[in-house]
Specification:
Elements lengths: L6 E5 L5 H6 L4 E4 L2 E2 H13 L3 E5 L3 E2 L5 H11 L3 E4 L2 H9 L3 E7 L3 H14 L3 E5 L4 H11 L3 E4 L5 H9 L4 E4 L6
Parallel strand pairs: 1-2, 1-10, 2-4, 3-5, 4-6, 6-7, 7-8, 8-9, 9-10
Helix pairs in contact: 4-5
Organism: Pseudogracilibacillus auburnensis
Keywords: Glycerol metabolism, RNA-binding, Transcription, Transcription regulation
Function: Regulates expression of the glpD operon. In the presence of glycerol 3-phosphate (G3P) causes antitermination of transcription of glpD at the inverted repeat of the leader region to enhance its transcription. Binds and stabilizes glpD leader mRNA.
Length: 179
């Protein structure tokens, strides 16, 4: 399943769920929710023809490990899983779901280490946070040859355009004005 170039609504609060479903994006990301709500939310989103990505590290009541991935695959049935953990990305790949490695960039050392990790686990996509650094987006894509999603702190259309022009294939944002 290929991700198109667009803005992907990242749902941080359940009150934004309906707005995400009304967006033109075929994709949505669940960032923060409780494990007890997740299955029904995913089923509802799929009935509305949305592809669902879940950030496993942020689901309350679910451990971000191989058993957590197995639970999501068998019970919740998302289209893909995001994580900051390489071992989780590796587990997601074994289950043949879309695996997205989320990278938080703090300095040049974290950039270097994250590029090494991404190369080792071969995620399908890398989500770069903060996504407001076009030069870094381009650099990571060149070093890994993995498609980049820009996320974090993007609140203006000009920032969306800058990230896309730098080579990002999509923008993930919880800023509902951009959806």
């Amino acid at each position: 399943m290929k991700m198109p170039t667009n803005i992907i609504p990242a749902i941080r609060q359940i009150k934004d769920f309906e707005k995400a479903l009304e967006s033109s994006s075929k994709w949505i990301i669940f960032l923060e929710t409780r494990i007890g709500q997740l299955k029904s939310l995913v089923q509802y989103a799929k009935r509305k023809n949305k592809n669902v990505l879940i950030h496993i590290d942020l689901i309350q009541g679910l451990k971000a490990d191989e058993y957590g991935v197995e639970y999501l695959v068998r019970e919740v049935k998302p289209d893909g899983i995001l994580s900051t953990r390489g071992s989780v990305v590796e587990s997601v790949k074994k289950h043949k779901l879309i695996a997205i490695q989320r990278l938080f960039l703090l300095d040049s050392l974290s950039l270097e280490n994250n590029v090494k990790i991404s190369g080792r686990y071969k995620a399908d996509y890398i989500e770069v946070l903060p996504g407001k650094m076009p030069e870094i987006i381009q650099d990571i894509h060149e070093k890994t040859d993995i498609p980049i999603i820009a996320g974090g702190l993007i609140k203006k259309k000009s920032e969306v355009h800058a990230a896309l022009n730098a080579g990002a294939i999509a923008i993930s944002t919880s800023c509902t004005d951009l959806w």
